[in-house]
Design a protein that fits this description.
0% strand; mainly alpha
Length: 107
């Protein structure tokens, strides 16, 4: 929103510089447009409230992202542990099967 207002001000400024009019007229028009733009801008109190709301939302979003990252890390760790256990179990079964094949009469 701040960039929007900057763009409007730059556009008005360029328009006023390019437009062929006397200095007195330009100052009057600039004053009118400035008053008009002030009507669009929130009061300082409102602006502070908006800043606090945005800051609060950003903090909440950051907290949510941290929690999701923590949950994801826990799931990855748990899954890796389960895969490791499955790999060990499979390796033990393969060893047992290989021994049984090597010694067919002793099962």
């Amino acid at each position: 929103m701040n960039n929007f207002f900057r763009g409007v001000l730059v556009g008005v400024g360029i328009g006023l510089l390019i437009a062929p009019m006397r200095g007195e007229e330009m100052r009057r028009l600039l004053s009118e447009r400035l008053q008009q733009l002030r009507g669009y801008l929130p009061e300082n109190e409102q602006l502070n409230e908006y800043v606090q709301q945005v800051s609060s939302r950003v903090s909440q979003t950051a907290s949510n992202v941290k929690e999701y990252a923590r949950q994801a890390a826990t799931r990855v760790r748990d899954t890796a542990e389960e895969l490791g256990n499955l790999a060990q179990k499979s390796a033990a079964e393969v060893r047992d099967s290989a021994r049984a094949i090597q010694q067919p009469g002793q099962s």
